[in-house]
Amino acid sequence: MIATPANQISKKAASPEGAYIHIPFCTHKCEFCDFAAFAGLIELEDEYCKILCSEIESRLAPRPEPISLRTIFYGGGTPGLIKPENIALIHSQLLKFAEIKSDGQPEIAMETTPHAITMEKAQAWLAIGINRLSIGIESLCDDELTAIGRDHTVAEALTGVKLAQQAGFKNISIDFMYGLPTQTITSWERTLDAALSLAKECPAIEHVSAYGLEIAKNSPLLSRFPRDSASYPSDDLCVQMYELLVAKLEENNYQQYEVSNFARPGFRSEHNLTYWRNAPYFAFGVGAHRYVDSVRSANLRSLKKYMRTPLADEVSENIDQAMFIKEGIMLGLRLLEGIDLQAFQASYGVDLLETQRSEIEFLCREKLLDLSDNKLKITRQGIPISNSIIARLI
Questions:
Q1: Which terminal Cβ of the chain has fewer Cβ within 10 Å, N or C?
Q2: Could you tell me which residues are beta bridge partners of residue 281?
Q3: Which of 301, 148, 131 is nearest to 221 (CA)?
Q4: pLDDT value at position 35?
Q5: How far from each other are the two terminal CA atoms of the chain, in whole angstroms?
Q6: Cα dist from 163 to 15, 45, 133, whole Å
């Protein structure tokens, strides 16, 4: 366990340089989804966006320091579903209280389903300032999309990505899942090969994310595929799927930089790196989680309750020094570059080699961790059991 140095004094909390905006509306809620997302309520879109704008003002206007943002991320739900003028309204409101940092290229990203993309919408998103699209595809096999309750087809996925590039997007991420019911190693390879073929046709695909399926406790998916269903790939097969993912993407110049994320050089997700580097960020909208002034908090998950009291918290937790250190280890080890031990000591006041030497030495002997050049990394062999490795250290 990590012990906090008695003389360690927490530094003044840094000002957030990232903002997350949650748009909860969907045409259809996927059967595995555990996010604050709602289908069939699009008639509330205009009212919701006005309330969200009021939340932005209420949270940002009183802050004494100037706010400069490097990243803005519109997530959901399906932000691509709503009217572009409502995205423009929210974006304009945010920029009343925050400036975009002028050094370097800011990342202004938006999630969407592929079948929400039209040429008119994509051009409007670009005009607003959105310069990165994250497109949720999940699978390029129609039977697997049906199995998890997605409401788009493979043909619609391919068309949506091509439309985004034709409209002018030069930074597109496509997202997939493995460990799906009915999925096999053969079908997963078919999805990966189809994705790489699409990337050759659409060079704007600079980033790929692929996550193992995690099923929420009350997920509707469990009514058709219970947790013990033979339709799910085994744990060993999921490891094979992960290894195949890494091999194929790296053969095609997508460099792995985080457990589930791969990018061509210069196209990492800067917003997600904010989370993994344990940096603070603002967040607005129903169910949105923020990390501001050493406090992690989340808005109400009920859409009705949020729209009535948008400043109320569902949860709020002060992050003390001990928790700050644990989060630094947990998040830092998700990155393939690992933890720079000298930088970690400067930021957290802890020498991990001194406090965790026996665990680190054991995990290095087992080839689950690598310690070289004063950096601590999870090895490729350790990635499939990274949660267990991290648990030993915190």
A1: N
A2: 291
A3: 148
A4: 75
A5: 5
A6: 37, 25, 12
DSSP assignment of 265-287, as one string? TT---HHHHHHHTT--BEEESTT
Residue 36 has pLDDT above 90, yes or no: no
Distance CA 76, CA 122 (A): 17
Q: Which two tokens mark 239?
A: 């490891």
Residues 133-142, mean pLDDT to the nearest whole number: 97
Secondary structure (3-state) at 68: strand
Is this prediction's pTM over 0.90? yes
Which pLDDT score is estimated for 11? 46
**CB-facing half-sphere around the CA of 378: CA atoms within 13 A:** 26
Determine the residue type at 289: H
Model pLDDT for residues 333-382, shown as the tens digit of each residue: 999 999 999 999 999 999 999 999 999 999 999 999 999 999 999 998 89
**What is the C-alpha to C-alpha distance for residues 325 and 300, in angstroms, rounded to an integer?**
27
Write out the E strands in 132-204.
132-138, 172-178
Find tokens 């457990």 and name the residue: 259
Give the tokens for residue 363.
């995990």
Backbone angles phi, psi at 214, to 5 degrees: -120, 125
- Per DSSP, the three-state class of 150 is coil
CA 160 to CA 176: how far, in whole Å? 15
Q: Where are the domains of the chain?
A: 18-276, 338-394
Residues with Cβ within 8 Å of 202's Cβ and at least 6 positions away in sequence, in order, are 161, 162, 165, 172
CATH 3.30.413.10 for the 18-276 domain, yes or no: no
DSSP character for 172?
E
Rounded distance between C-alpha atoms, residue 131 and residue 207, angstroms: 13
CA distances to 58, 261, 304, 307, 310 from 47, in Å: 17, 35, 11, 8, 12
CA atoms within 13 A on the CB side of 268: 17
Gap between the Cα atoms of 269 and 34, Å rounded: 22
Tell me the one-letter amino acid at 17.
Answer: E
CA distance linking residue 31 with residue 140, whole number of Å: 17
3-state SS class at 176 = strand
In the predicted structure, residue 6 carries a pLDDT above the cut 50:
no
